[in-house]
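Problem: given the chain below (45 residues), write out its structure.
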Amino acid sequence: MVPVFVNMIYSIFVFIKDDLYDYILLSQVIMRRKREQRENQSRTG
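Solution.
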């Protein structure tokens, strides 16, 4: 009973960790693009 419960929590934690890692990578890429767009706008305007 206990090992199954621990295994469930561990699998959920790993799943969330992977999602968080993807989300952090995505947010970093989006922030970089926004910053580049802002720099390009200020350069052209």
